[in-house]
Amino acid sequence: MAFSSFVCLFLVGFLVFAGKLLAEMPDSDDEVPLEMEKKELLGIFEVMGALLEDSDWPLEHPQPCTETQWPGVQCEIGDEDPPMFHVTKIHIGPDILTPPCKSSATLSESLLKLPYLKTLSIFSCFSTSQVTLSPKLFGALSSLEHLALVSNPTLSGEIPSSLAQISSLRVLTLSQNNLQGKVPSKIGALVSLEQLDLSYNNLSGQIPEEIGGLESLTILDLSQNVLEGQLPSSFGQLQLLQKIDLSSNRLGGLQHLEYMVADSNPIKTEVPNFVGKLMNLKTLSFSECGLIGPLPNFLSSLKNLTALSLSNNSLTGTVRPNLGTLPSLDLLNLSNNQLSGELTLPEDFIERLGKRLVLRGNNGLCTSNPLNKKENISSHVIAPLCLNPRGPRDDQTLAGEHPTESERVKPLDQDPVQESSSTGSSWSHVKLNSFGFVFCFLSMLL
């Protein structure tokens, strides 16, 4: 009994001692307080002071990374010992209403005191005082990944070539400003760049050939400038490009285009209107592009066309008979769409193309002539007979069987466009291979 009492007293004493010991231990956060370097803190005060109307910003946000944060400033903890906060993002825009930009707003070179800055985005700030981009400034921001200076009407001058030194840059948006001069050729050194938007400025001259060095680029927008000359052939190196907009410039040269092959790109619109202005086209292929709507009438104006493939899309309506008036057309592949109605192509045209006329996979399409019985024409090429000529076809108005799933046409890359002897010449100016980009860019170019 005495022994058990001793044990209890011992345990109580131990717990009291341990509790007192823990209470006296300093909290880890108090022991190693997270701070900012004085130089970096002064830098953010000077940068914001040059931009914002409120001169008391440093007093209201003495610790912009901790207790007195501002929505436009973000920080991250570095890997130093002891760890410290660093400013990594500055954003000023219409989504942050107070304090507003002042009329004399400028871009302070104190940004150089923020070496960890990853994102700088300034929207609708420079509208009164003239502001230019300092070459010294941007060449030194080695950690910058996202630079967006947008809708600043008094931001003028040239795009500094020193931007090309920021190898980490992934997004460069300088749209809706008043920038002049040429697109710097050194910009091609930004191998990590994924988005380049220089639209709505006053940029002039030619698009530099070096732009083909932007091997990671997915979006390119140079619209609404005064660029001129021909498209650089290096565009063919931009294998990851998904969207390109060159509209409202003074670019030329596309009228000489002879071959346009843009298969397997997510265009998902009607056949682009600019195609109707490319009178020298010999080969046109938009297979597997998600095209919708009817076959455009302007296709019949492309008198030099020898091969046309719009297979594996969602085109609707009828097959226009004026396609049969194209004098040089030697291959027409409209398979696997949603075309319907009676096929009224000229009989001599159908016989001339023979098996190079591919229409299978359009379950609403039919013909009033038994052309599939001719020796040079396959039953997989010509649609079944119509029971109700001149009218749309459905499952009850056709004789013959529909093609089975196994009979559907292979993608065009397994059934390639065959060129006639008249198309053996080399491409004259620009060769657009299947390098993933959306053809929204040419709707206003020609």
Fold and architecture overview:
The protein has 446 residues and is of the alpha/beta class. It contains six helices and 25 strands. It has helices spanning 2-24, 28-31, 38-51, 57-60, 135-139, 347-353; strands spanning 73-77, 85-92, 119-123, 131-132, 146-150, 155-158, 171-173, 178-182, 195-197, 202-205, 219-221, 226-230, 243-245, 250-252, 259-261, 283-285, 292-294, 307-309, 314-317, 331-333, 338-342, 357-358, 364-366, 431-432, 438-441. Strands 1-2-3-5-7-9-11-13-25 form a nine-stranded mixed sheet, with no helix packed on it. A hairpin with a 7-residue loop joins strand 1 (73-77) and strand 2. The longest helix is centred in the first third of the chain and has 23 residues, at 2-24. It is elongated, with a radius of gyration of 33 Å.
Key attributes of the depicted protein:
446 residues, alpha/beta, nine-stranded mixed sheet, six-stranded parallel sheet, 25 strands, elongated
Number of strands: 25
Percent of residues in beta strands: 15-25%
User: Number of helical runs?
Assistant: 6
Kindly, what is the distance between the CA atoms of the first and last residues, rounded to a whole number of angstroms? Answer: 104 Å
Give me the secondary-structure category.
Answer: alpha/beta
Task: Kindly report the spatial arrangement of strands forming the biggest sheet.
Answer: 1-2-3-5-7-9-11-13-25
Overall spatial form: elongated
- What Rg do the Cα atoms give? 33 Å
Low-confidence runs: 20-32, 390-445
Helix content: 10-25%
Main pleated-sheet profile: 9 strands, mixed
Tell me, rounded to a whole number, the average pLDDT. 80
